[in-house]
Predict the structure of Phospho-2-dehydro-3-deoxyheptonate aldolase.
Amino acid sequence: MVDPNDPVVLADDSVIAGLDYWRELPIKQQPAWPDADAVARASAQIASFPPLVFAGEVDILRERLARAASGEAFLLQGGDCAETFAGATADQIRNRVKTLLQMAVVLTYGASMPVIKMGRMAGQFAKPRSSDTETRGDVTLPAYRGDIVNGYDFTPESRRADPARLVEGYHTAASTLNLIRAFTQGGFADLREVHSWNKGFASNPANHRYEQLARDIDKAIRFMEAAGADFDELKRVEFYTGHEGLLMDYERPMTRIDSRTGTPYNTSSHFLWIGERTRDLDGAHVDFLSRVRNPIGVKLGPTTTPETMQKLIDKLDPNREPGRLTFITRMGAGKIRDALPPLLEAIQKTDARPLWVTDPMHGNGITTPNGYKTRRFDDVVDEVKGFFEAHREVGTHPGGIHVELTGDDVTECLGGSEQLDEAALATRYESLCDPRLNHMQSLELAFLVAEELAK
Ligand SMILES: O=C[C@H](O)[C@H](O)COP(=O)(O)O
Ligand SMILES: C=C(OP(=O)(O)O)C(=O)O
């Protein structure tokens, strides 16, 4: 039995109270690994690999998120529902980064507000599922839990949880992050490249609107350059990573002791969130993530009560540290206007000031008669509007948006100005789990959010 205050001796001999107490607690959504020794070997190997992100970067992000929580910045968080190993190609990573940069420009320009850019990238490999199994015809197999656990192909071999995937997950995250860093630090993300981010995407109304905005930005930059401004600072952008902190056999060995402060940081990504299915107050995920220094997000669905919210705050942010806690609401378009205001009102009566972010995707899932999991773009837009309305009503800050998106022209969500219909879903549905906004729908959403922010 582990005592929550017992010191835990880590591989590097640092001693941290309670870091492994989660092992004593109920835990959800973990794979049924067939070979415990192989998992232990894979975890030990990961523990010996270098960190993917550094504690100093994590601290800067916390400061940035604190600004968003107080209404001085806005968080844009987006990327695949489930990253795949095969999808970690230069083209796909670049398209996602370009899409996020374009959205960030639309938001920054439209709302005159700094935008914190964060990819659901370089680690979003593990998925919680509604059911442990999937049945097709008369065959039942383990559900696909993300590439870091098992394969998507519907065969017993592929669906078997394979610990070697943990190590592959680390390497895929490392190469993805390497490319992200090259794109965002090496000149590609320079604001003077604002036009080139639009290149390669199919012509559509959102792209045209973007081109117009890019021309305005260009003009402003040329004017400032002529006036002697030094734009070297524009060459690099801060870009952070985040994923669901779900798979403990990956997250625990990626947690290291910061040599500066002697405290634990999860070095798999800058930001981690706890999902709607694993945010039990007495569960393993909340306990473990309460003990790392990274900024932490928690998904809040429509049944969240003010009492639960308060307990999550006390557990995850006992010191009320600015930027530490983000609530990501995913209520559903039909529920947000009723479900969110009571939470916002309750928080106003406390000393807590979390960052509020809307996830307009996860409460709006539907399945079409032809069997596709999808979302209506109109519902996504409606939830975003409901989020802003609720904050305006209560007087709190709408601080960010969290979306599942891709830079590719997939057909996974219904609607948008291309008016994708049910038949179109069959043409390019590529997500292995939930449907993502395509490039155009993502840009359209950014324009809408910019308008809401500017109101
Ligand atoms: O992304 C979120 C969840 O992993 C996903 O919605 C679960 O989908 P399922 O209900 O098909 O398991
Ligand atoms: C599983 C997810 O969301 P939620 O926990 O809100 O269902 C997700 O964001 O991938």
Observations:
- The chain has a mean pLDDT of 93.
- The chain has one domain: 7-454.
- Residues 123 and 178 are 13 Å apart (CA to CA).
- The pocket of phosphoenolpyruvate (ligand 2) is lined by residues 81, 128, 244, 275-277, 299, 330, 362 (CB under 6 Å).
